[in-house]
Amino acid sequence: MHVTPTCDEIVKAPKALLHDHLDGGLRPATIVELAAEIGHELPATDPRELGEWFVSAADSGSLERYLETFSHTVAVMQTAPALRRVARECALDLAADGVVYAEVRYAPEQHLTGGLTLPEVVEAVLAGFAEGSEQAAAAGTPIRIGTLLTAMRHAARSMEIAELSTAYRDAGVVGFDIAGAEAGYPPTRHLDAFEYLQRENFHFTIHAGEAFGLPSIWQALQWCGADRLGHGVRIVDDIEPGTGALGRLAGYVRDKRVPLELCPSSNVQTGAAASIVEHPIGLLRDLRFRVTVNTDNRLMSGTSMSREMALLVEAFGWGWVELQWFTINAMKSAFIPFDERLTIINEVIKPAYAKLL
Ligand SMILES: O=c1[nH]cnc2c1ncn2[C@@H]1O[C@H](CO)[C@@H](O)[C@H]1O
Ligand SMILES: [Zn+2]
């Protein structure tokens, strides 16, 4: 029997999230308070209006303009207490939404204008995640958070950020990423950082195939050695419409089970997909790529992990079978050790979905 999951049920079901930006998920009320403390001017000072401003400003159809909205969130994240607070609230918000495992990313190099050093930034965020996770567990909604450190692809600090990632690998940093405007900044600009990470047996994902197509995905995998693709949605350009025949690159991605960190609402906002119903996630799931569902930026998309799943249920008629599949796909693709992934799958995810299926 096919049961349509309701929004409330989706919130309660355990979910795993691999692609969420710390500076894209602040509570509007927190931005207002932190901005007032430092005298940063915002486009609106009423939290509700500010939340709406972020969504409409990010609704631009262009990744470059979408990214401009981050100037306001990054501006209020320049001190250790502010970073710690934002990270603590992020853990609490994800946990309250039923996320049991999350990898949250941010770019330490963007948080130095208040005089912090790179290690101080990392330590403030890790302390915030630890505090938030502790509070969430006490509230009966346990969550495990792994941090990914991002280097900005237009900048030249990727090697330094890669080294920072491995320095904190035993303290909660589980991977590395590059983000920012894609066109004109191929991942191969950062080859030395990726080669270093491979020599260190570390994990990394690369934003690729969002605003730019197949060459970016090909470089991320075949030159840089990415474990996963941030978005990767443009892999559909290598699939023949109608027949579903896979080109060489799409075949490789599917055969190797390369995880795709798909972010439906974000893609509609940046113009990478026309609408949720037309989002390639439908095709990619039918063809059994290693698809995962993600939020990208909860603030800019006015979304949550549960909302992304509810939108997919509505658009594609999916039920618990698909939601469990996405969740297990994400957990299998996580950057924490295999035994810890299995424990979450077998002790948290499967028993909960068994009651829903
Ligand atoms: O979807 C995206 N594509 C590319 N870059 C992004 C996306 N979302 C956020 N960022 C960039 O990543 C930085 C660190 O978190 C953000 O400041 C933003 O510039
Ligand atoms: Zn992203």
UniProtKB/TrEMBL annotation:
UniProt binding sites for Zn(2+): 19, 21, 207, 296
Note on cofactor: Binds 1 zinc ion per subunit.
Domain of life according to the entry: Bacteria
Reactions accelerated catalytically: 2'-deoxyadenosine + H2O + H(+) = 2'-deoxyinosine + NH4(+); adenosine + H2O + H(+) = inosine + NH4(+)
Site (Important for catalytic activity): 231
Its EC number(s): 3.5.4.4
Listed GO CC annotations: cytosol
Keywords tagged on the record: Hydrolase, Metal-binding, Nucleotide metabolism, Zinc
One family name in Pfam for this protein: A_deaminase
Enzyme class name: hydrolase
GO term, biological process aspect, one: nucleotide metabolic process
UniProt similarity note: Belongs to the metallo-dependent hydrolases superfamily. Adenosine and AMP deaminases family. Adenosine deaminase subfamily.
Known function: Catalyzes the hydrolytic deamination of adenosine and 2-deoxyadenosine.
HAMAP family registered for this protein in UniProt: A_deaminase
Protein name: Adenosine deaminase
Organism: Catellatospora methionotrophica
